[in-house]
Amino acid sequence: MLALGACGGSEPVGGPPPAAAPAAPAGGPLDLGGVCPATVVMQQDWQPQAEHGAMYSLVGPDRTIDAAAKAVRGSLVAQGVDTGVDIEIRPGGPSVGFQPVSSLMALDDSIVLGAVNTDLAIAAAATTPTVAVVSQITTSPLMLMWDPASHPGAQTLRDVAASGVPVVTSEPVVTALLEKQGIITPAQVDTSYEGTPARFVSDPRILQQGYVTAEPYLYEHEIAEWGKPVGNQKLADYGYTVYPEPLAVRADRLEQLRPCLGKLVPIMQRAVLGYLADPGPANALIVQLVEAYQTGWTYSPGLADFAVRTMREQGLVTDDPASGVFGRFDPARMEQIVTTFGPLMQAQGAAEIPAADSLYTNEFIDESIRMG
Q1: 273-284: pLDDT as tens digits
Q2: What is the spatial order of strands in the sheet that 167-168 belongs to?
Q3: How far is Cα of residue 216 from the mean position of the Cα atoms in its chain?
Q4: Taking Cα atoms as reference points, which of 47, 64, 52 lies closest to residue 12?
Q5: Domains of the chain
Q6: Cα(182)–Cα(184) distance, rounded to whole angstroms?
Q7: Residue 255, pLDDT score
Q8: According to the lineage, what is the superkingdom (predicted)?
Q9: What is the per-residue pLDDT across 289-323, written as a single tens digit (0 to 9) for each?
Q10: pLDDT of residue 17
Q11: What is the C-alpha separation between 132 and 113, in angstroms, rounded?
Q12: pTM for the whole thing?
């Protein structure tokens, strides 16, 4: 059980003192001491959830949870050894006033890695540029969902959209992408989605944003007002090809962090694969953090298990199809992403469309790391 002080400060996890992980061999690939900051701060873009499992799998057993600051800290333990530095993981979303990760990184030099979706990196390139260094999830789990009873016979989101119903999202780029393809009309666009089930439950005709790793389970098993399956289709099937939550560094710190990234990026590559193979410990920590942070977000063990199963079964996390290397960015895909999403982000206020090769690097990827 988590022991929290009355002031909401940092407290260790209760129970007997944890056994310390053995130290990484000095100078070896897992020894980050002297090449990385003493505390490797990682910034997520949303609340703790299974999609962030690789990060949380690296927090050692000596961790402390700071409920007030919304952070977990501990030794950075990779492949069973203490790397010689600490890790701190910070959630995004309401914990940071919904600020974009690139903006947080621009304000705080302590953040080493941040999760920055490729479309958001395009939007921020002129003001708060970042460089993605490793991909975690290959295909976006973002989807649109519908009520099968309200749309009998509908097999795809295109089928449902053809009926003219509202498309309720919080992501203007999604509706812009669908408009561009003629799948929806401007009259169907509704960007008022605030993340609760109230609208869908009261008006099940709509198409609503969600994630294939969350809402299908939530609506069937945890939202009592609904309690039945929903239809859904990934937006990746309609050209939403961005890399979701790749880990990035601030562009002006790339050179400074280069020695660290040479070791840290392969650790992150292996952490994703290790988490998918054995998600239990990290999922338990994720659930514990959600309970401790008390932001109104809820996350059950059942949902965490469902998310991992969905990532596996739907192939959301795979080796890079072009190279067969896990965590690597495909240059052709990055060019296509900028060609597709650059004009959409510019129409929504982005100052310029960046060159694709300014948004990522494969320099630190260990090409021997593969899922197979």
Answers
A1: 999 999 999 999
A2: 189-190, 167-168, 207-211, 142-146, 231-234
A3: 18
A4: 64
A5: 10-139+242-358 (3.40.190.10), 151-238 (no CATH)
A6: 6
A7: 98
A8: Bacteria
A9: 999 999 999 999 999 999 999 999 999 999 999 99
A10: 59
A11: 9
A12: 0.93
